[in-house]
Amino acid sequence: MNTFEAATPGSKIRLARSLKNMSLDTLAELSGVSRPTIARLEKDNYKRLPVDIIKKLLPYLELTMEEIKEEPPDGLAHLPDYLQQFILDPENADFLEYCYLEKRRRELEAKIQQKKENKKEP
Description:
65% of the residues lie in helices and 0% in strands. By secondary structure, it is an all-alpha fold. It has helices at residues 9-19, 24-31, 35-42, 51-61, 65-69, 81-88, 93-120. The termini are far apart. The protein is flat and about 50 Å long. The protein is built from 7 helices and no strands. It has 2 domains: 3-69, 434 Repressor (Amino-terminal Domain); 81-120.
């Protein structure tokens, strides 16, 4: 698995689980870790990386702790210098945050619309 497709430990766990077509319930049953705990891990809802819990999941996800902790490569390296400078300039932070939030809002609206359409189907 290319763990660079996911940036955080939680997203790496979620990606590995989904690539194995494994539900949260199945992973919980196999590992002995509760479903809510795994869900919190996948959402990166923890203050400190719970290594002891993650170690219980690794054999079923075919991951190593090194892969979980591995940092993604510089995400800006593929961009031209002028874009890298623009993104890294603190004065542009508000604009970039607005763009991200607007994109996320549109994604969520599309997801809500899809759910509404699915409910209408018999």
